[in-house]
Amino acid sequence: MSETVPPTARSPVPLTEVLVPAELAPGTYLHHFRVDRRIASGGMGAVYLGFDTSLNRPVALKTLRPELAGDPSFLARFQREAQSQANLVHPHVVQVYFVGEERGVWFMAMQLVDGGSLQDAVDRQGPLPWTQVATHFLGIAEALVESARLGIVHRDLKPANVLLDRYGIAHVADFGLVTATHAPTDHDTLVRSPMAGVAGLSVVGSVMGTLPYMAPEQLRGEPLDQRADVYGLGATIYHLLVGAPPVSARTAAEALQQIQRGLLPVRRARRDVPRALASIVDRCLRADAAERFPSHEELARAVRHAAPQPQVAPAPLVRLIAGLLDLLPAVGVFVPFFEKAPWAAPAWFTLWLGLGIAFLGASPGQWLMRLRVRTQADGDVPPLHAAARAFLQWGWTAALALAYSLISHSAPLVAYGPLGVGGAVWAAIVLLGALPAALRRPTLVDRITRTRVLVDVR
After folding, report:
1. What does the pLDDT average to over 46-73?
2. Can you tell me the distance from the alpha carbon of 121 to that of 113, in angstroms, rounded to the nearest whole number?
3. Is the distance from CB of 233 to CB of 284 less than 8 angstroms?
4. Entry pTM
5. Domains in the chain, ordered, with CATH?
6. Deepest in the core among 187, 311, 313, 362, taking most CB within 10 A?
């Protein structure tokens, strides 16, 4: 018998002497923890609001149903859950303070996280703002980095198992289905893994978890590593962004069929999610584990890059230099070709900006000066929207260049006059509208296109 299995697993307590057969009354004491009221209940037991009289602080008390406490496997799993969470000391994991038994009632005392679950938030609000979801994504991924260091696979990541505190910070909970990938060495951790030496609690070939969030290898009952939790986290984030899990199935076979057919990409379901964040979630949900992120550390690094950045307006000189860098190639083409091919400079300028927008997400000058163009909601600017912005900002250069070429070819006034006057007025409006940038405020083009130019702080 493993040392991690509680002693009463060998000789369970007599269930006829249990403290309370169903619900614990307010004022009941479990060791030095006072029961105040029930918060929630389920098939495994109940959760109560409690009070730690030794440290004078509120806690959550999770109890195991008496009839389940008589089953050694359930009791061992309850103990394993407590040990796993107690060893995972991380800001985004619900902390466990104590596990024990009082007159037949097995319970664990945990950190009180009283803001509801992410499932509650989605049920109440529908799809959550992507900026909020990205913040949760990063926090949970960083918690799973520590989980992987201890050789723990959660196996049941889902919105209902991520709790929010009063500040809106996410905490991973419910480690009742954890399994081990390895026992960490003394170089990895100062404490012995809660999974080390636990035999028979997780059997290859068994299928445990919640169908819509389970990886294909988990559905097939295969051995698992941290990539199964990568999938589970991806499915959880997909649910938060879209409002529904990526799979809707009643059986494991049906879920596997849906996954093999291909899941709906995030941006097909919700267009305002930035491409970088959507591509990370889509990669987490690949059917082949080898195509997902190989580790939580690499996943967290990618999410950190896609997460919302501080919104820092650029210095006026930086925006000016970015504009000059955009103009420089067009000027270089205009000077030698304005007589033979007056269309060359505007065409090259259009191509130059278009390539930047298509591949860099900003004009080349902005990219070189580490600037980024975002929507007012800090989302990606659609390519057509970005092209319209570039046309409003730089279209006057094409008008003036063509007018100058016509003048140099002695064209009649009626040919170059409208182009020259229109281009000059257009340029004056854009340049005067750019003056607020000197105070780090949005320019006229920013306001018209409902976009913002920000410093890329990554």
Report:
1. 90
2. 14
3. yes
4. 0.78
5. 7-110 (3.30.200.20), 118-196+207-306 (1.10.510.10), 316-455 (no CATH)
6. 362
